[in-house]
Structures are given as C-alpha cells and as structure tokens.
Amino acid sequence: MKEARPALSRSVEDYLKAIFALTERGEIASTSAIAGALEVQPASVTGMVKRLAEADLVQHVPYRGVRLTGKGLREALRVIRRHRILETYLQQKLGYAWDDVHEEAERLEHAASERLIDLMADALENPSHDPHGSPIPTSTGEIEAVDFATLADAATGERVRIRAVDDDEEPEGLRTMEARGLVPGVHVRVESRTPDEGALTVQVDGGEGQVVETELARRIFIIRDA
Question: What is the dihedral of CA 14, 75, 169, 159, to 10 degrees?
C-alpha cells in the first residue's frame, strides 16, 4: 500500500499551483505576482509563504521571491495532474464543453483522491494532454517541458501549429477560440498585423483570413513548423 501523506489544505495547493505556473514560464514568483495570480492581498501572501517555507515546500530566493523545493514541486504536480485529468474526464466522459471544465475541475481537484484520479486516467487510456492542450503530469511526477511562445509572437508570414490555449481566464475567450477554429492541433498562418500591433490577421488551416486581437493571441501557445 502507498504510504499516506498528510493532506494539504486547498489554500496551500492553490499557492503551489500558482508558484509553479509563474516559475514555469520563467517569471519571478514575487509576493506581488503571487497575489495577482490568486487575487489576494500581498500581506496574505507573506504569511502563507512563511508557512510554506517552514513546511519545506518553497525556498526564498533573495530579492526575487520564492521557488518550489523538490517536495513542493512534487505536490504541485500532483494537484495539476488531478486538475487536468478531471478536465479531460469531464469533457470526454461527461460531455462538458471545453470552456466549462476548468471551473468544475478547480472545485473537484482538492477533494479527489489519487486512487480516483488514477482510475479516471485508466478509463481515459492515460491521456498525455488535457482538452486545452496542456501536458498532464504522470503519476510519477514527470511533465513534458513546453515552450511558451504565443501566436502574438509569430512573425508575419510564419506558419505555426497551436499547441495549447490558456484556460485560466474567463471562459468567453475559450468560446471565441473554438468558434474561430483556434484550437490545439490546427495550423495557423499569420498574414498581417495592424500598424498599432493591436490585432493580427491569420489564416486557419487554409481557410479565410480572420482578425485575432493581440490580447487573445497571447493566450494561444504555438509550436513553430520546422
């Protein structure tokens, strides 16, 4: 039998996820950045970070903020695995729309057991990515390294493939992406940009050109064609 681990609180799990997301993208997990990601006051972050450090879940980096320890990283990946397996199960087995699964998974991820998640993963034939294209950590704590280049970074004339989309914002953006065909797996060619860089015109899988606002393009992660 697996050795039981002390359960972490929902708040602790949310902090670990937020710190992982910030540092995975090469950003500084400062007090203000964590507060912004979790929509809490900086004073609350200061107190929680102290608790996390005492539990050996994070380590202070002088003048930069915090980073996850090995223990903290393992715990963060467990939560992320639960979240992304739940999203995938909700969509594939229960018929949820891809813009509805994030909030539902946010509620369920703190209550679902590792056994339940493993059974869901088996029922799904162990998917490697969630409905939004994000890699799912394995049960042993491994996760695919990703490049965070976005559609907004693509040059005019460049052809790219959509790898994933950001599901952390309002679901309206996801509905817009789906309606326009801007989903993981499709190829997109950047045809032009507005002079003020506020929007770009793209061609999706050889279809007609369409205007994509730069703010939306920053939520679409790409793989550049070789």
Answer: 160
